[in-house]
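re the bet — no i am not wrong, look at it urself. input seq straight from the record:
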Amino acid sequence: MHTVIALGTFDGMHPGHRAVISRAVQEAKQTGAKSMVYTFSSIPRALFVKAPKMLMPPDERKEEILKMGVQDVVMVDFTREIAEMTPEAFVKMLFDAYCPLAIVAGEDYTFGHRAAGNMETLKKLGKEMGFKVITAETVRVKLPDGTLGEKISSTDIRKALEENKISLAEHLFKGEIL
């Protein structure tokens, strides 16, 4: 069966992550394909350096993803073998295993050895292999003081939590989307 794959770490499931996944679910419904998320059980850079803790444990992330209407979640350990794959090898592995009609990711998504692949790489490979690439729109929130926030990121949420700015962290998770 053909799939529509959402790619990302999806640490914390903030509105930016939800936008990527929602777009994949929407595309799958439109094409009659199976919606799926391909993600990692840990933050990839943790393989090389001390990385921050994930905002949500893997089982909770999977549960939240499934609640969004995704039909399948593939959550794999980020290994040296995966880390050393070229962008082309990573996408070929996805293509061979899951037969995507489309792949959805955020505009800053990177993949492959030393994050050498980006959305332009993915679009090029999509043309070569015959699948559509969809860049999910960047999500920004209105901050509690009424100003326009930057792109939502797990890093910003972690920072707010570390600085004991709980209401800001909650707002970034669930704030008014612009």
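see?? Residues 122 and 133 are 7 Å apart (CA to CA). told u. also The chain has two domains: 3-137, 139-178. so pay up
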